[in-house]
Design goal:
- With 157 residues, this protein is mostly beta strands.
- The chain has one domain: OB fold (Dihydrolipoamide Acetyltransferase, E2P) (Beta Barrel).
- It has a five-stranded mixed β-barrel.
- A hairpin with a 5-residue loop joins strand 3 and strand 4.
- The longest helix has 14 residues.
- The protein is globular.
Length: 157
Amino acid sequence: MEEVDSDDEFPAQILSPAKSLDKLEWLGLAQIKEKKFNEMLNFVVVIHKVKDIDSITKKSGHLKEKRDLIVCDDSNLSCLVTIWSDQYMEELGGKQGTVIGIQKARISSFCNGSLNVTEETTIFYEPEILPQCHRLRQWYTMVQFSKEPVDFEYISV
């Protein structure tokens, strides 16, 4: 069981994509290296691995459930994303190959660079309105069926 230094982690909202999503700037994982810790940014990624639920102890002494995802994109980079409530994983379907848009993910220093959800984060399931969604789904399907496995480089900020 991990101990967390802050009590500022909240579950994300899960919403259907709105038409206005395509007006936001959506980044790829390679662009994290150019950003600073604690910046809030938007990413479109593919769920590569879903880790088991874990319990952590907050500063307040309360136990909090979290689930970590390993996400990737066509830059062949991967990154840890922490979801702070398993109910949201159930709503997402939480399975390998799902394309998600993460609006207002906080860049965290945990693991030398990860994405964290906060009370401001919204996760969009299969955001078809974004052109990246189609491209990433096609790319990930090719990766899954490739005869040579792809080793994703873990991002380091």
